């Protein structure tokens, strides 16, 4: 088996978290592109999952070694489109907010408003 080294870099901004939704932005850079020159599906899923996690956390700052963290139990992603450049916007909203388990739907859109990814994730609540 041949060994390969891959490099990438994902950077995003959490632009808002309220009781009902969380939002974020990410610029498409070379560090998230696949060999075809479009966004790697894993980068889109990661972006959406981070925004969903921030909704479940209620805006609490994520820190290494924190006492509790809302681990995702399931991730169901539908890749509906892709881009090779531009800005991406994610918005996470509650599907079901439970005491122990919560479900979040997160959409990632481009600047034209096209949905690129629709992610539904279920999280074990941290608190």
Element pattern in H and E? EEHEEEE
What Rg, in angstroms, do the CA atoms define? 15 Å
Spans where pLDDT lies below 50 across 5 or more residues: none
Strand content: 35-45%
Q: Characterize the quaternary organization of these chains.
A: single chain
What level of helicity do the residues show? 10-25%
Mean pLDDT: 91
Structural class: mainly beta
Q: What is the molecular shape?
A: globular
Tell me the major beta sheet. 6 strands, antiparallel
Number of helices: 1
Sequence of strands across the biggest β-sheet: 1-2-4-5-6-3
Q: What gap, in angstroms, lies between the N and C termini?
A: 44 Å
Q: How many strand elements?
A: 6
Helices and strands in order, then pairings?
Layout: E1 13-17, E2 21-27, H1 41-57, E3 72-79, E4 87-97, E5 101-110, E6 115-124
Antiparallel strand pairs: 1-2, 2-4, 3-6, 4-5, 5-6
3D structure, described in words:
The protein is mostly beta strands and 127 residues long. It has one helix and six strands; from the N terminus they run E-E-H-E-E-E-E. The chain has one helix at residues 41-57, and strands at 13-17, 21-27, 72-79, 87-97, 101-110, 115-124. A six-stranded antiparallel β-sheet has the order 1-2-4-5-6-3, with helices on one face. The protein is globular and about 45 Å long. The mean pLDDT is 91.
Short description:
With 127 residues, the chain is mainly β. The chain has 1 helix and 6 strands; from the N terminus they run E-E-H-E-E-E-E. A 6-stranded antiparallel beta sheet has the order 1-2-4-5-6-3, with helices on one face.
